[in-house]
Amino acid sequence: MNLPELTYTADAAMLGEAASPRIRRISASEQIHAALRERIVTLELAPGRNLSRQEIAAYYGVSQTPVRDAMLKLEEEGLLVIFPQSKTEVSKIDIEQARETQFLRLSVELEVARRLADSHDRTVLASAAKVLSFQKSALEDNDLDRFSRLDRLFHRALCDAAGVSNLWDLIVSRSGHIDRLRNLNLPDPGKPASIVHYHSLILDRIAAGDTSAAVDAVRSHLSGTLAQIDDIKSRYPKYFLS
């Protein structure tokens, strides 16, 4: 499986838009990092699974060097545990790290909601509204994989609209544990519909300029998964650090 020379951002690929402002040549290690990270976050590569650098290099049709570099970056993000001269494992979910990232994310997104609600320019919400429409379609199709990616894209679109894209990138770099929790929680009955409800509510309150209600909607939305930690852990005990 050869890696493409050019990679489009998830934003453009998901929305079907021209991505020329964001197209860039990226290295094989960056592409492998992104691919492995997605497979870990979506739990295709489950916590505790052993990974072979040689097998991954063969799968992607590259040398082991970019795979090693990608794995080192994933280790920095807490998604891999590398035992020198021994083995490499997908890390188990660290609840405390997930809580820390949630604190960071909530702090940023509450301020994003305030800034957008206080703004008089509602045109900046167009991208988030478009993502939400696609997410509703994914819900109707019961396509949870696409739904999950659109979920992340919705929040990125709000950060982009508020002019804090780099802060969203920071959150993403630390969100591997909380994102895995969310993906374990996503198939639960009513969860996808709840996400769509809160996304719609957030956009409606921001568009109405109701800062207090927008902030409350963000806070309620982002608290859902952490409130279910005990239940999630009881169902997937092997996925978590003891």
Percent in helix: 55-70%
Structural class based on helices, strands and sheet pairing: mainly alpha
Major beta sheet, strand line-up: 3-5-4
Identify the quaternary structure here.
single chain
β-strand percent reads 5-15%
Low-confidence stretches: 1-13, 16-23
State the distance separating the first and last CA atoms.
37 Å
Main sheet summary: 3 strands, antiparallel
Reading the helices and strands in chain order gives EHEHEHHEEHHHHHHHH
Global mean pLDDT? 90
Evaluate the radius of gyration. 18 Å
Count up the helices.
12
Q: Using DSSP, what is the number of strands?
A: 5
Outline: globular
Structure description:
This protein is mainly alpha-helical. Helices cover 63% and strands 6% of the residues. A 3-stranded antiparallel beta sheet has the order 3-5-4. Strand 4 (80-83) and strand 5 form a beta hairpin. Helix 10 (191-207) packs antiparallel against helix 11 (211-222). The longest helix is centred in the middle third of the chain and has 24 residues, at 95-118. The radius of gyration is 18 Å and the shape is globular. The two termini are 37 Å apart. Mean pLDDT is 90; it is low at 1-13 and 16-23.
Features:
disordered N terminus, mainly alpha, 242 residues, 63% helix, globular, 3-stranded antiparallel β-sheet, single chain, two-stranded antiparallel sheet
Short note summarizing the structure:
The strands form 2 sheets. The protein has a 3-stranded antiparallel sheet. It has a two-stranded antiparallel ribbon with strand order 1-2. The chain has helices at 10-15, 28-41, 53-60, 64-76, 95-118, 126-140, 144-161, 165-173, 176-185, 191-207, 211-222, 229-235; strands spanning 6-7, 24-25, 50-51, 80-83, 87-90.
